């Protein structure tokens, strides 16, 4: 059982439940207490010790059912007619009443163990043999669906397929009827093994496959994401945002920092009769983050700006003082929309207001200078998200210079590669002179790093 | 054999809690049993009013132990949860002892000798006499053990969580001036959370994670049966069925078990024998706590009563 539990932990990890060694020890202790005979109680105990949220409980419950459905059939499959049984029965329908006994008596001496087993129709033994062979073939190492064939044949080999083939050859000559039966049984066996391997794949390979897919997505250029991947990409960015939030979100209290801490002062000075020789102060607070984000939502970057907005949305949750602006040919403030609405609604609203136009950085910057220049303080970090392609209109780099002068830092995140900067209508080189940092930001990973750096400077 | 004994113990938990009027599902009973056996706190999550706090009360009543409750809120800190120094007492004593100081040091001729004598008194002011134990420390100091209920942990700050970690894993606290205080008998710890904030992994790791959702119909009927004895079986079925229908609506706040019990009491008071549309509409405010919810549910009342009645035929 110990072995089985360990395999279950691996399967649980595959299902996305984080099982640390300490947790697996807890689970072992719990299982030792409740025993393994009552499956429902075992399930409860594992769910209690391993899962740490309702989602994990559901995933783990499914995983448990899938995992422990393996040995279960041993008890009840003999009675109930499974499809497999049905597919084999026609051959022996005349004697179906006493199939197993008749089968047992029939096989002639000199056949290999596997052939004996198949002919004797002993389902318990066959299931046990498959389980044993899966162990020997280390089925729990399966990672990719392409490995199915390899593992199937490994398991069959471990069960003694070679010997069975020899037996088959011998029987075809001596006893064609029996050979026919054996061949049918072998087909059924192959099918059973294939099912076992598929189940193994479902149990053990999920995590790996998911990691791989995420890894690919993470490094895929945002602008070239296929339609069907957009949802996954969104989920991934959401995940990144959540991670950023967990890492950087500030504790909500501590507003009264920098004041005299009366309690600690009194306590420190109790030994001097309460005369305050030593004073204790509440901690001085850190630099308050101020971020102003300018996001290009014009047609040329439409797909990327989706992700930019999603990320700015999460910035609003991480940092207290963020103002966000969106533009294509003119600029509007979108802080409120991002703060009040869910990401999807907010993005739809912003795109409908200013999105998809042809970009005009110059007039957008004019808008900003006219209405919002006062939002910039010497503590502000300005982030510009855009490709700096201004349709050959006046880029008004002078305004960007003034923005840069008024703020602490000016970070430009450009979804295009460095090679493209300055070619065509790209004004990047001209803008870049006024930026503190210019970064290419084309993949989810680069996006995460960039935002993480920006937020980290305030911690 | 071992699991035979074990499974009867889970049943023992179930019947023990039932004797206190708490009808526990098997999962809840398993959690309580396991937390006892492997000495781990239980983190109970779930919507408001499904009996998270009640569980702690029932365990305490069943085992005949004291229940110590710590209600969490934003800004809760060490001084309110764990211990605090009695500053006033410390100050008062220094004032009084000022005069004594002369007497104590009277025999000493030199400054050095006086200092030596003073050293003998040690750090009297930071001794146990001046510690005011708050709920957490109190719980550790109970000689016979107790049930420690840390209610609505999700309302507290993240820092407070880290403060709890030592208690939850080792049942001990460290007071800088005094050293480590370990529990005499490890308390049974129940933490409750409405998932307003995600709890830290470190905290979750130290606990058994129990999720109590809305109970199944049968279970809820049994809960009502044990809590509101005067209610007839037919009405009980009908009202629980009705509430299950209500829960299928998209409401701001779904009625939970505590509301079911309240409603059952109200119906008994009104001497109802079965649900009728008028009465349900009049008492809907017991079940639903938002005006908008009541408005949303009102038009459905008749259909729901009919549905509940129909399910009775089969149930």
Automatic annotation (TrEMBL), chain A:
Region Disordered, annotated ranges: 69-113
Keyword tags: Coiled coil
Regions annotated as coiled coil: 161-199
Biased composition (Low complexity): 87-113
One Pfam match: VWA_CoxE
KW Protein biosynthesis (keyword) present: no
Superkingdom of the source species: Bacteria
Keyword Coiled coil applies: yes
Protein name from the UniProt record: VWA domain-containing protein
Species per Swiss-Prot/TrEMBL record: Bradyrhizobium amphicarpaeae
């Amino acid at each position: 059982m110990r072995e089985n539990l360990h395999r279950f932990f691996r399967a649980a990890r595959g299902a996305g439940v984080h099982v640390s060694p300490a947790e697996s020890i807890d689970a072992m202790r719990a299982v030792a207490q409740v025993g393994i005979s009552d499956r429902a109680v075992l399930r409860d105990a594992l769910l209690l010790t391993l899962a740490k949220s309702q989602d994990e409980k559901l995933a783990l419950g499914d995983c448990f059912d899938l995992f422990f459905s393996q040995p279960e059939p041993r008890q009840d499959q003999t009675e109930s007619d499974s499809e497999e049984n049905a597919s084999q029965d026609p051959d022996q329908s005349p004697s179906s009443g006493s199939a197993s006994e008749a089968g047992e008596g029939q096989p002639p001496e000199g056949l290999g163990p596997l052939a004996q087993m198949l002919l004797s129709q002993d389902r318990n033994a066959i299931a046990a043999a498959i389980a044993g062979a899966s162990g020997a073939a280390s089925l729990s190492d399966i990672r990719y669906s392409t490995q199915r064939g390899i593992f199937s044949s490994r398991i069959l080999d471990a069960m003694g397929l070679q010997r069975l083939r020899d037996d088959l050859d011998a029987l075809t000559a001596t006893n064609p009827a029996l050979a026919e039966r054996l061949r049918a049984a072998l087909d059924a066996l192959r099918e059973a093994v294939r099912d076992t391997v598929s189940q193994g794949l479902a149990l053990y390979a999920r995590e790996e496959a998911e990691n791989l897919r995420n890894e690919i997505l993470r490094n895929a250029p945002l602008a070239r994401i296929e339609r069907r991947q957009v949802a996954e990409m969104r989920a991934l960015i959401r995940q990144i945002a959540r991670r950023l939030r967990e890492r950087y979100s500030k504790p909500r209290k501590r507003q009264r920092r920098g004041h005299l801490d009366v309690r600690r002062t009194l306590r420190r000075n109790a030994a001097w009769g309460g005369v305050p020789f030593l004073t204790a102060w509440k901690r001085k607070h850190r630099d308050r983050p101020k971020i102003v984000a300018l996001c290009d939502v014009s047609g040329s970057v439409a797909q990327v700006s989706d992700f930019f907005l999603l990320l700015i949305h999460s910035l609003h949750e991480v940092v207290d003082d963020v103002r966000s602006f969106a533009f294509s040919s003119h600029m509007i403030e979108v802080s409120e929309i991002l703060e009040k609405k869910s990401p999807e609604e907010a993005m739809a609203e912003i795109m409908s207001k200013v999105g998809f136009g042809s970009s005009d950085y110059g007039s957008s910057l004019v808008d900003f200078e006219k209405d919002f220049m006062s939002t910039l303080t010497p503590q502000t970090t300005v982030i510009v998200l855009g490709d700096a392609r201004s349709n050959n209109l006046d880029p008004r780099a002078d305004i960007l210079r003034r923005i840069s002068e008024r703020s602490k830092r000016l970070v430009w995140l450009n979804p295009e590669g460095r090679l493209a900067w300055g070619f065509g209508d790209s004004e990047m080189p001209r803008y870049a002179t006024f930026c503190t940092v210019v970064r290419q930001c084309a993949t989810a990973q680069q996006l995460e790093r960039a935002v993480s750096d920006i937020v980290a400077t305030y911690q | 054999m071992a699991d035979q004994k074990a499974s009867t113990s889970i049943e023992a938990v179930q019947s023990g809690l039932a004797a206190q009027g708490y009808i526990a599902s098997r999962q809840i009973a398993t959690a309580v049993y396991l937390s006892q056996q492997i000495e781990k706190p239980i983190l109970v999550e779930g919507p408001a009013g499904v009996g998270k706090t009640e569980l702690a009360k029932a365990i305490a009543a069943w085992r005949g132990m004291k229940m110590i409750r710590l209600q969490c809120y934003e800004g809760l800190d060490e001084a309110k949860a764990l211990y605090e120094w009695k500053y006033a007492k410390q100050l008062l004593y220094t004032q009084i002892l000022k005069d004594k100081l002369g007497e104590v040091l009277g025999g000493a001729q030199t400054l050095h000798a006086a200092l030596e004598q003073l050293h003998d008194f040690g750090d009297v002011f930071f001794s146990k006499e001046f510690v005011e134990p708050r709920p957490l420390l109190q719980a550790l100091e109970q000689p016979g053990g107790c049930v420690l209920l840390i209610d609505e942990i999700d309302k507290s700050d993240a820092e407070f969580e880290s403060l709890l970690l030592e208690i939850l894993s080792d049942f001990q606290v460290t007071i800088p001036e005094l050293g480590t205080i370990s529990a005499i008998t490890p308390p049974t710890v129940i933490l409750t959370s409405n998932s307003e904030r995600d709890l830290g992994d470190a905290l979750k790791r130290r606990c058994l994670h129990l999720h109590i959702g809305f109970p199944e119909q049968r279970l809820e009927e049994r809960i009502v049966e044990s809590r509101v004895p005067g209610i007839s079986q037919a009405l009980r079925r009908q009202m629980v069925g009705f509430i299950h229908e209500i829960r299928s609506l998209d409401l701001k706040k779904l009625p939970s078990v505590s509301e079911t019990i309240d409603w059952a009491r109200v119906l008994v008071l009104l001497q109802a024998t079965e649900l009728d549309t008028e009465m349900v509409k009049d008492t809907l405010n017991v079940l639903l706590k938002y005006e908008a919810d009541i408005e949303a549910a009102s038009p459905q009342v008749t259909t729901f009563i009919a549905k509940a009645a129909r399910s009775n035929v089969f149930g």
